[in-house]
Amino acid sequence: xxxxxxxxxxxxxxxxxxxxxxxxxxxxxxxxxxxxxxxxxxxxxxxxxxxxxxxxxxxxxxxxxxxxxxxxxxxxxxxxxxxxxxxxxxxxxxxxxxxxxxxxxxxxxxxxxxxxxxxxxxxxxxxxxxxxxxxxxxxxxxxxxxxxxxxxxxxxxxxxxxxxxxxxxxxxxxxxxxxxxxxxxxxxxxxxxxxxxxxxxxxxxxxxxxxxxxxxxxxxxxxxxxxxxxxxxxxxxxxxxxxxxxxxxxxxxxxxxxxxxxxxxxxxxxxxxxxxxxxxxxxxxxxxxxxxxxxxxxxxxxxxxxxxxxxxxxxxxxxxxxxxxxxxxxxxxxxxxxxxxxxxxxx
Length: 347
Prior knowledge:
Blueprint: E1 10-14, H1 15-32, E2 36-39, H2 46-55, E3 60-61, H3 65-73, E4 78-81, H4 88-98, E5 102-107, H5 110-123, E6 127-133, H6 145-157, E7 161-168, H7 176-188, E8 195-199, H8 204-209, E9 214-217, H9 220-223, E10 241-249, E11 255-258, H10 262-265, E12 274-276, E13 283-287, E14 292-295, E15 308-313, H11 316-320, E16 325-330, E17 333-339
Parallel strand pairs: 1-16, 2-3, 2-9, 3-4, 4-5, 5-6, 6-7, 7-8, 8-9
Antiparallel strand pairs: 1-10, 10-11, 10-15, 11-14, 12-15, 13-14, 16-17
């Protein structure tokens, strides 16, 4: 099968570019002498997670339990969940995973720690935990080194918990004083700090400089070694994910309509949505639920109904999560069709 044989809209992946991105991140982290842990939320595909491990990742990161369940079922054995796991339904699922793989959980409160502890005690398991520090994400995380120390003291009193260390996101040089003081306070209290997990694609060097024992990177699979900030950063050389669309209308002057809209590219797409590989001079200017509105006024090419165009979405992770499968190809030939097994796993 060739890419041109696929029905549209089709989510496809240039495997040569993907392989290059995976290899470059592994080489980058080796040159920095820092282990890296591959985030899977951008692709949600176990086969790609296995490729990340094969390229040099020490383990993977899953944002939600549902992702972790899919990855453990696919044979992934070392998983960090940098997310507060709360509630009896999730905690029962968690302890089932702990029996099958090495699971590490991030948390930022005694309430979360106590819930994990009670479930671990009931189910006769021990759960590895780390404390999340808020060093600039303004999302989750304890707000001071003293708060981290106090939480570690509470964790030490709870059965079923194995305290491993701390994590931060994103890794920033400005976070070093916070991180250094936290680690110092924890060690002074007698805690072993085996894990200092940093994170963020493009922040690997900062993770090394601020003293992390590992760095978490994920979007590199789709974006390369630096984060994509706008459509100006999109290129066929760095971005393996594309959506093949068909032109379905050319009635309006200076505009065409393609058969991919919000349900194909993203539910709330950032502007201007993406980059056309064949005609970089054209761009999306709007999307309906199932229609893509493309401004072709700057192109001298005469577009025809039935033509196929290839677009690199601006947010590839959001786009991938909308599809059931990803078609991998080299040149023009289809090599593999991967189910996106963890798509929609938000619980």
